[in-house]
Fold this protein.
Amino acid sequence: MPVKKSIKRIKHTRPKKTNPKFDVYKKVLLKTKEQIAGDIRTLSDENSGSGNDRSGDVSGHALHMADVATDMYDREFTLGLASTDRELLFEVVEALGRIQDGTYGACVQCKKPIPATRLKAIPHARTCLKCQKSLEAKSR
Protein backbone atom coordinates (compact mmCIF):
# COMPACT_ATOMS: atom_id res chain seq x y z
CA MET A 1 0.00 0.00 0.00
CA PRO A 2 1.59 3.37 -1.03
CA VAL A 3 2.30 5.88 1.66
CA LYS A 4 0.83 9.31 1.08
CA LYS A 5 3.20 12.13 1.76
CA SER A 6 1.96 15.44 2.89
CA ILE A 7 3.39 18.16 0.71
CA LYS A 8 3.39 21.61 2.14
CA ARG A 9 2.89 24.34 -0.32
CA ILE A 10 5.59 26.93 -0.15
CA LYS A 11 4.44 30.48 -0.47
CA HIS A 12 6.52 32.35 -2.94
CA THR A 13 6.54 35.93 -1.87
CA ARG A 14 7.83 38.69 -4.01
CA PRO A 15 10.56 40.76 -2.48
CA LYS A 16 9.29 44.07 -1.22
CA LYS A 17 9.86 46.93 -3.56
CA THR A 18 12.42 49.17 -1.96
CA ASN A 19 11.88 52.87 -1.56
CA PRO A 20 13.49 54.57 -4.59
CA LYS A 21 14.73 57.46 -2.46
CA PHE A 22 17.14 55.02 -0.81
CA ASP A 23 18.61 53.72 -4.10
CA VAL A 24 21.57 56.10 -3.78
CA TYR A 25 22.37 54.73 -0.31
CA LYS A 26 21.93 51.16 -1.53
CA LYS A 27 24.50 51.71 -4.27
CA VAL A 28 26.95 53.24 -1.81
CA LEU A 29 26.40 50.39 0.65
CA LEU A 30 26.88 47.72 -2.02
CA LYS A 31 30.10 49.38 -3.19
CA THR A 32 31.32 49.65 0.41
CA LYS A 33 30.45 46.00 1.00
CA GLU A 34 32.55 44.89 -1.96
CA GLN A 35 35.49 47.09 -0.92
CA ILE A 36 35.46 45.78 2.64
CA ALA A 37 35.17 42.17 1.51
CA GLY A 38 38.18 42.73 -0.77
CA ASP A 39 40.13 44.35 2.06
CA ILE A 40 39.38 41.41 4.35
CA ARG A 41 40.50 38.94 1.68
CA THR A 42 43.74 40.89 1.17
CA LEU A 43 44.44 41.07 4.90
CA SER A 44 43.71 37.35 5.27
CA ASP A 45 46.03 36.50 2.38
CA GLU A 46 48.81 38.57 3.91
CA ASN A 47 48.40 36.81 7.25
CA SER A 48 47.98 33.26 5.95
CA GLY A 49 51.70 32.36 5.88
CA SER A 50 53.75 31.35 8.88
CA GLY A 51 56.15 33.84 10.43
CA ASN A 52 59.18 32.32 8.67
CA ASP A 53 57.48 32.18 5.29
CA ARG A 54 56.46 35.82 5.44
CA SER A 55 59.91 37.10 6.43
CA GLY A 56 61.64 35.17 3.69
CA ASP A 57 63.64 32.99 6.10
CA VAL A 58 63.05 29.36 5.20
CA SER A 59 66.30 28.05 6.65
CA GLY A 60 64.73 27.18 9.99
CA HIS A 61 67.23 29.31 11.92
CA ALA A 62 66.00 31.50 14.70
CA LEU A 63 65.34 35.11 13.81
CA HIS A 64 66.48 38.06 15.83
CA MET A 65 64.09 38.86 18.68
CA ALA A 66 63.42 42.34 17.30
CA ASP A 67 62.43 40.86 13.92
CA VAL A 68 60.10 38.40 15.60
CA ALA A 69 58.54 41.18 17.70
CA THR A 70 58.04 43.37 14.63
CA ASP A 71 56.42 40.49 12.74
CA MET A 72 54.11 39.78 15.69
CA TYR A 73 53.15 43.44 15.99
CA ASP A 74 52.43 43.66 12.25
CA ARG A 75 50.35 40.51 12.40
CA GLU A 76 48.31 41.71 15.40
CA PHE A 77 47.81 45.10 13.79
CA THR A 78 46.58 43.47 10.58
CA LEU A 79 44.23 41.19 12.52
CA GLY A 80 42.86 44.26 14.32
CA LEU A 81 42.18 45.92 10.97
CA ALA A 82 40.44 42.78 9.71
CA SER A 83 38.30 42.66 12.85
CA THR A 84 37.25 46.29 12.41
CA ASP A 85 36.48 45.61 8.76
CA ARG A 86 34.31 42.62 9.71
CA GLU A 87 32.33 44.76 12.16
CA LEU A 88 31.79 47.42 9.49
CA LEU A 89 30.80 44.75 6.97
CA PHE A 90 28.20 43.47 9.43
CA GLU A 91 26.77 46.99 9.81
CA VAL A 92 26.65 47.47 6.03
CA VAL A 93 24.90 44.12 5.48
CA GLU A 94 22.37 44.99 8.18
CA ALA A 95 21.70 48.36 6.51
CA LEU A 96 21.11 46.61 3.19
CA GLY A 97 18.66 44.32 4.99
CA ARG A 98 16.83 47.34 6.41
CA ILE A 99 16.55 48.78 2.89
CA GLN A 100 15.10 45.47 1.73
CA ASP A 101 12.56 45.18 4.54
CA GLY A 102 11.53 48.84 4.38
CA THR A 103 12.88 49.99 7.75
CA TYR A 104 15.95 51.83 6.44
CA GLY A 105 16.11 55.50 7.32
CA ALA A 106 14.23 55.10 10.59
CA CYS A 107 16.03 55.11 13.94
CA VAL A 108 15.99 51.65 15.51
CA GLN A 109 15.58 53.26 18.95
CA CYS A 110 12.96 56.00 18.61
CA LYS A 111 11.59 55.05 15.13
CA LYS A 112 11.89 58.66 13.95
CA PRO A 113 13.41 59.35 10.52
CA ILE A 114 17.20 59.63 10.39
CA PRO A 115 18.14 62.91 8.67
CA ALA A 116 19.49 62.59 5.13
CA THR A 117 22.67 64.43 6.13
CA ARG A 118 23.44 61.68 8.66
CA LEU A 119 22.70 58.94 6.12
CA LYS A 120 24.96 60.66 3.58
CA ALA A 121 27.79 60.75 6.12
CA ILE A 122 27.14 57.26 7.54
CA PRO A 123 24.92 55.25 5.18
CA HIS A 124 24.84 52.30 7.60
CA ALA A 125 23.62 54.45 10.53
CA ARG A 126 21.08 52.64 12.68
CA THR A 127 20.15 55.50 14.96
CA CYS A 128 19.46 59.21 14.80
CA LEU A 129 22.09 61.50 16.30
CA LYS A 130 20.13 62.06 19.53
CA CYS A 131 19.77 58.32 20.20
CA GLN A 132 23.38 57.67 19.21
CA LYS A 133 24.59 60.23 21.75
CA SER A 134 22.38 58.61 24.37
CA LEU A 135 23.80 55.15 23.59
CA GLU A 136 27.38 56.44 23.77
CA ALA A 137 26.69 58.18 27.09
CA LYS A 138 25.33 54.92 28.55
CA SER A 139 28.37 52.93 27.44
CA ARG A 140 30.79 55.20 29.31
